Amino acid sequence: MRSANRFVPCWLASFVILCTIGCAESESRSGHDGTKRGTPQVYTVNYPLAFFAQQIGGEHVDVRFPVPENQDPTLWEPSVEDVTRLQSADLILVNGADYAPWVKRVSLPRSKVVNTTEEARQEYIDGVESVTHQHGPDGEHTHTALASTTWLDLQIAITQLRSVKDALVKLVPNQSEVFEGRFVKLETELKALDQELLDAWSSDEPAPVLSAQPVYQYLARRYGLRVESVRWEPDEMPDEEAWKELAASLETTSAKAMLWQTEPIQEIRAELKRLGISVVVYSPASNRPKSGDFIRVMKENVASMINSRK
Amino acid sequence: MFDSLYIAWKHLCFHKVKTLILVAAISVTLFLPAGVDALVDECAQQLRQRAAQTPLLIGAKGSETELVLNSLYFESNPPADTSMKALERVQSSGYAEAIPLYVRFRAREKPVVGTTLDYFSFRELRVGAGRQFAMLGECVLGVDAADQLELRPGQSLLSQSENVFDLAGAYPLRMNVVGVLEPSGSPDDSAVFVDVKTAWIIAGLGHGHQDLGEDASSDSLLEKDGQRLTANASVPTYTEITSANVASFHFHGDPVDFPLTGVLAVPEDRRSRALLRGRFQGTDEASQIVEPSAVMEKLLATILRVRTIVLVGALLLSVATTLVVVLVFALSLRIRRQELETMRKIGATRFAVFLIVAWEILVVLGLSGGIAVSLTFLTRQLSGPAIRWFLL
Question: Which of B130, B137, B148, B89 is nearest to B114 (CA)?
């Protein structure tokens, strides 16, 4: 009896040790970097996807958008440390349509990467910028670029939203109902904005518009705009040659508005006004806005577009 | 009893050479069938184990054996290329996770395995030193490859041209070694792992060169007509990917047409496995889907036939050796007739003499049996690493 009593604490101690080892092992399995992670990590390549993931996933996911503020996500190049962090993510939401070219130059776990425009692949706009050249024994070849700000067509944005929701449901299946509810709410808001733009702009004749940067291809196609792009920076006065080229193009187009991603400097605004062109700030919201969120920025965009027609 | 054993032992010790020859001959005869059996068993087990860990393989139609040996052991000639389309088909079916494999090139005779990070999760491979590959042009070595090539993270490794006479082919790529895997006791230990995109760059499907659009003064630029640039063949193509030039690397063609040597499919369950197999069974199907374990069983059936032949040979050898041993003992007794009679004359009983001879035979057989058992045990213990070394 006495020996049996002695064995009980020994067994209990062994059980506790084994449980501790077991828990330690399961913790080390929870993350590739060996750290315990309570909520799944979701990385995105631009702000709209981060917004969608955050709105749908809420407290059930840890959404990370690694691009620093004030930097264009299409021009960002990740460091090795950034890529290592991405590799340990549970889900990586990419935009597709060649957005963020760095995605093709780094090694990511394919099973965790979700292309949010996969369902809208047929709607990609091709050949936006192409350079044909030849060198070496391969002969002539062409580098074409896809238009990549897909979410400016709010129908494609809804497709991306759905794709984000589906990926999150797969990641956290026990929250599918919650995610579905949040998705429907956001979808309704995007649909309403889409309809507003359609009502304001769609007509039999595409409306001519100028754009300061070539990022509005999807917006133009969806809402019936005929966009002619230049490459102007909002904080840099274009040279005389650029103004001459603009004046020449105005002879063939009756554009009355110019789309800008951000507010241009006063000198540009004044010169455009002199030419009879109004400035319309239509932010793609590729990176985090200084204030508000994606929906608010889109609402402001829609309002300024509608105002420009008045 | 022990007196007889003592005399028998002394006799055997006195005739050392004869005894040793007898023991060696009988030991080898006994060990041969058991040893062959142990080696073949170990070989079959290792081949089966790797195959059993690989649920399904998809590749271009052709030799199943080549596809399996190339994808599992990174050996044999590369099978005909399949493409990323096959991978997309598996992925879009939703029945399995698809992992690409492009095992065509070598670097200092080690196979260069182009894949994705999912391969490491699937095979449960961990990085022991350094880190996982992150950028184009980086590679991770298996532990044996690192030892044999005397490479460690921070050093570089040059890929081999597929055909040394193809002067116009792709340039070798200098790959940066960023990590070494922990030992896994599998063919992965001897391989060089790169991202499949890096493997495509080695294949010449992607490359980096100076920006012809930006450097209009380049001597290589022959003509510039709007967006159309024509350069001569002297445009320097980078043979090493660095942080300074990585942005210039690009691929030509549609990525879904890019080649793979195989696609590793990991279905969730048996139903998904069956449904996925059904997808690749059409008569006009350009791809084949194989179960590595089934292909390996076919290959092993050949090995097992060889084992039977070897075992029959060993048994015949055993019979011959037994007859020779019987003859040796018979002749030995005839030569020792006077010695045995002398024993009888000095008082040994007939049974005592019989006992001495019997002990001699038993000791020889016992020693031989012991040695044969020890050798078989050692073979079973050491055959694992030996077969791995031989196979891998």
Answer: B137
